[in-house]
Amino acid sequence: MVLPDEIRDRVVSYLAHQGRKDVSAIVELIEEERRRLAELLEDVSEEQAGFAPSAGQWSIREIVRHVVGTERGAIQIIARLAGAGEPSAETDGVIGQSLAELRSELAEVRGQLLEVVGRVNPHTNLEARHDHPFFGPLSWKEWLAFQRVHDRDHAAQIEAVEGEEGYPKRQ
User: Fold this and answer.
1) Closest residue by Cα to residue 63 from 90, 78, 44, 79
2) What is the DSSP string of 9-75?
3) Whole-angstrom Cα distance, residue 52 to residue 37?
4) Are 107 and 89 in contact (CB under 8 A)?
5) Spatial CA neighbour of 154 closest among 94, 71, 97, 91
6) Backbone angles phi and psi of 104, in degrees to 5
7) In this structure, are residues 103 and 64 in contact, taking their beta carbons and an 8 Å threshold?
């Protein structure tokens, strides 16, 4: 994926701005966006979740699987950068296959993220960075804020899939 410089710069600026905020304000923003994503998924059937607009494009199920997997990785990065240790909840690394399983995992992984963030002194290790593949070196608070950007991007992707020709009608 090639990201235009102006979009990259806007996102980096946004993450830097959010990273200067209090953790509770960042959590409020990421939770608001996660609620929006969860609401989009509420009435999606398994048939709809499996619909891929064309070869090489993700289905809603694949999008949600990606969001879950990416957030699991972000939890590890945030925990390491912030010196929080490993998340207390164990995961087997297997990501669900059905949309129902993925909805549950979406909530579980967010709970793990909030648990890790809740254990961290909000002023700890803010100078430590981990490279994001598109947005460069980010602090743990910027990685936390990134979860909003990521959820928003994939919510828009889900909406686009739902608008594609051939998308199964709601029952």
Assistant:
1) 44
2) HHHHHHHHHHHTS-HHHHHHHHHHHHHHHHHHHTT--HHHHH--SSTTSPPHHHHHHHHHHHHHHHH
3) 18
4) no
5) 71
6) -65, -45
7) yes
Q: Are 161 and 60 in contact (CB under 8 A)?
A: yes
Q: Where are the domains of the chain?
A: 5-162
Pairing of strands 136-138, 130-132: antiparallel
Average pLDDT, the chain: 93
What 3-state class would DSSP assign to 122? coil
Please choose, from the candidates 41, 50, 126, the residue with its C-alpha nearest in 3D space to the C-alpha of residue 82: 126
The CATH classification number of 5-162 equals 1.20.120.450
Q: What is the pLDDT of residues 53-85, one digit of tens each?
A: 998 899 999 999 999 999 999 999 999 999 987
